[in-house]
Design brief:
This is 2OG-Fe(II) oxygenase. Belongs to the iron/ascorbate-dependent oxidoreductase family. By secondary structure, this protein is an alpha+beta fold. The chain has a single domain (4-202), classed as Sandwich (Jelly Rolls), CATH 2.60.120. Helices cover 20% and strands 36% of the residues. A hairpin with a 6-residue loop joins β2 (30-31) and β3 (38-43). The longest helix has 13 residues, at 13-25. It is globular and about 45 Å long. The termini are far apart. The chain binds 2-oxoglutaric acid and fe (ii) ion (FE2). 2-oxoglutaric acid is lined by residues 81, 83, 91, 96, 114, 128, 156, 158, 169, 171.
């Protein structure tokens, strides 16, 4: 894949509504754990190896249609995260490397897939901007039910959302790791602020 591609109308429409409802109701869905680049966003993350895909689908059945379509056959480790932005939220320029907290030497993902689950009507801002070191490669205006794939080594950002309402995407960083790297990655865990604060309160 050169830079990025888009697949419109990726799923039946009722799947998007179902995903929206399930994610909003999920106890892990909370103010984000991700780094400082993610300003005023909500979400949670599922880290898993391909060997544990069935377990992921058992615990999160509503992710299955997305995973069936979006996962790339050559990838063996994944960082899946629903990401919600509202008015005033933005994501500063970054390269996705969320598995770095488990393996310091990790290369960026091969591919990142992003499904737009809900987008405010008449959205202003909120575009996904993709860059190479030399130039801007694309500016993608989120459309509900479009599945975007982009090369995992691209720097990207999300412009500040200027409209009321929620912009919910389902993002999956897809890695092709060596056996040695793979050993450092948890087979299946959920990362969420909600879980961490519950743990802290218990102490
Ligand atoms: O929602 C998007 O358009 C992309 C979000 C993103 O960059 C990320 O989750 O790493
Ligand atoms: Fe990203």
């Amino acid at each position: 894949m050169k830079h990025y591609q888009q697949q419109p109308n990726a799923f039946p429409n009722d799947y998007l509504n179902n995903l929206w409802g399930e994610i909003q109701a999920c106890p892990y869905f909370a103010i984000n754990n991700l780094n400082r680049d993610f300003v005023c966003t909500k979400g949670f993350s599922v880290v898993f190896q391909r060997s544990h895909l069935t377990q992921v689908e058992q615990q999160f059945p509503y992710f299955k249609p997305y995973l069936d379509l979006a996962l790339q056959p050559h990838c063996n480790a994944f960082y899946l995260n629903p990401l919600q932005l509202k008015e005033g939220s933005r994501v500063d320029p970054h390269i996705d490397r969320s598995l770095r907290s488990y393996c310091k030497t990790i290369e960026p993902p091969l591919v990142v897939s992003v499904l737009y689950v809900r987008v405010p009507t008449n959205l202003e801002g909120g575009e996904l901007v993709l860059r190479s070191p030399k130039r801007q490669l694309g500016q993608i205006k989120p459309q509900v039910n479009t599945l975007v794939y982009f090369q995992g080594d691209l720097t990207h950002s999300v412009n500040a959302v200027k409209t009321p309402g929620n912009r919910l995407s389902l993002v999956c960083e897809q890695y092709s790791l060596t056996e040695v790297e793979l050993q450092e990655i948890p087979p299946f865990i959920v990362e969420s602020r909600a879980v961490q604060s519950a743990k802290k309160q218990r102490k």
